[in-house]
C-alpha cells in the first residue's frame, strides 16, 4: 500500500533563486527559505519518498483540472510572466504516470472534470520547478504536477485533494505532497515596484491575517482554519484561489487533521505577497 510520508506548504517565488545569484541585490535575502526547502528535501529523502505530488497554484487553468502525467519532465524554462527573473532554468525529472492517472481516475469517479496528460511538450510551471530545484534537483524522486483551475470552488478542489489521498493510499508509492503557493497574494502595483517591493507586504490586513493563520496552524486549530479558508482565499487575494492549500488540507483529512505544523523558516513578504515553508506532520 502507498503512504503519505510528508506534507508541506511551500513557497515558489522567483526571489528564492535570485537570492542565490551572485550579482543580485537580493543576494542571500531568502537564505532562510532556501534552507527550509533544502531541509524538506532532506527529510523527503530520509523518509524514502518515491513521488512528489505538487499542487501548483502557478499553473492556472481555465477549463477543468489538469495533471501533468508525463513519464519524464524535461525542458528549459523561461517564465512568460517574469522572464527577467527566471530564464533558461533546466529541469530533467522523472514523472509518475501511474499515480497521475490514478488520481485523475479517482477524481473522475467522483464527478470531477479532471484530465491527466501525457504530452511531451506539456512543460512544468515554476510553482513546480522552483520547489523541485531545491527538493529534488537531480530527480531522485518522481513528480506529479497538478494545476489550479481559476473557475472552480473550494468544494471541487477539496474533492481533488481527497481523491489524491485515496489514490496515494491505493498506490505503491511513498508520497510527499507539496502545496506550492503563497499565503496572502496581493502583489505591489506596477508603479510601486522597486527594491522595497521584494521585502514588503502590499496589505497590512493581509499580513495580520497570514500571521493569525500561522498561529492557528501552530496551535493545531485546523477546524477554525478550514472554516475561515473560503473567506481567507477571497479577502486575502489567494493565489489560484488558495487551491493548493485546499487540496493539501483535503488530503490531510480537512478538519479531522490533528498533526503538528512546523514552520521551517520565518514568514516573509515577496513582491507584496506572504510566504512560508511549513511542514504538516503526518503520522
Ligand atoms: Fe506564484
Model description:
The protein has 283 residues and is of the alpha/beta class. The protein has a single domain (3-280), classed as LigB-like (Protocatechuate 4,5-dioxygenase, Chain B, 3-Layer(aba) Sandwich), CATH 3.40.830. It is 34% helix and 23% strand. The chain contains eight helices and twelve strands. It has an eight-stranded mixed beta sheet, with helices on both faces. The chain has a two-stranded antiparallel sheet with strand order 4-5. A hairpin with a 2-residue loop joins strand 10 (268-270) and strand 11. The radius of gyration is 17 Å and the shape is globular. The model has no long low-confidence stretch (mean pLDDT 96). The protein binds fe (ii) ion. The site of fe (ii) ion has 5 residues, from strand 2.
Helix content: 25-40%
Q: What do we call the CATH topology?
A: Protocatechuate 4,5-dioxygenase, Chain B
Q: Report the CATH C-level class.
A: Alpha Beta
Secondary-structure element string: EHHEEEEHEHEHEHHHEEEE
Tell me the CATH superfamily: LigB-like
Structural category is alpha/beta
Number of domains: 1
Runs in which pLDDT lies below 50 for 5 or more consecutive residues are none
Number of helices: 8
Amino acid at each position: 500500500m502507498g503512504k503519505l510520508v510528508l506534507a508541506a506548504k511551500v513557497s515558489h517565488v522567483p526571489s528564492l533563486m535570485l537570492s542565490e545569484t551572485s550579482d543580485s541585490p537580493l543576494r542571500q535575502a531568502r537564505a532562510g527559505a532556501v534552507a527550509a526547502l533544502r531541509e524538506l528535501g532532506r527529510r523527503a529523502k530520509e523518509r524514502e519518498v518515491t513521488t512528489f505530488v505538487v499542487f501548483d497554484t502557478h499553473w492556472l487553468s481555465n477549463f477543468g483540472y489538469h495533471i501533468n502525467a508525463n513519464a519524464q519532465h524535461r525542458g528549459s524554462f523561461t517564465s512568460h510572466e517574469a522572464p527577467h527573473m527566471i530564464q533558461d532554468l533546466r529541469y530533467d525529472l522523472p514523472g509518475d504516470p501511474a499515480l497521475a492517472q490514478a488520481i485523475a481516475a479517482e477524481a473522475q469517479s467522483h464527478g470531477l472534470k479532471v484530465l491527466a496528460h501525457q504530452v511531451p511538450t506539456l512543460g512544468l510551471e515554476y510553482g513546480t520547478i522552483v520547489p523541485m530545484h531545491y527538493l529534488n534537483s537531480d530527480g531522485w524522486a518522481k513528480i506529479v504536477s497538478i494545476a489550479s483551475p481559476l473557475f472552480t470552488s473550494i468544494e471541487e478542489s477539496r474533492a481533488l485533494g481527497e481523491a489524491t489521498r485515496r489514490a496515494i493510499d491505493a498506490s505503491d508509492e511513498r508520497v510527499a505532497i507539496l502545496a506550492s503557493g503563497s499565503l496572502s497574494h496581493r502583489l505591489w502595483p506596477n508603479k510601486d515596484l522597486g527594491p522595497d517591493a521584494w521585502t514588503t507586504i502590499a496589505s497590512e490586513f493581509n499580513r495580520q491575517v497570514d500571521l493569525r493563520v500561522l498561529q492557528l496552524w501552530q496551535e493545531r486549530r485546523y477546524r477554525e482554519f478550514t472554516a475561515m479558508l473560503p473567506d481567507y482565499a477571497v479577502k486575502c487575494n489567494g493565489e489560484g484561489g488558495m487551491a493548493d492549500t485546499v487540496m493539501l488540507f483535503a488530503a490531510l483529512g480537512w478538519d479531522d487533521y490533528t498533526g503538528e505544523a512546523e514552520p521551517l523558516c520565518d514568514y516573509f513578504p515577496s513582491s507584496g505577497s506572504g510566504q512560508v515553508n511549513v511542514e504538516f506532520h503526518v503520522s
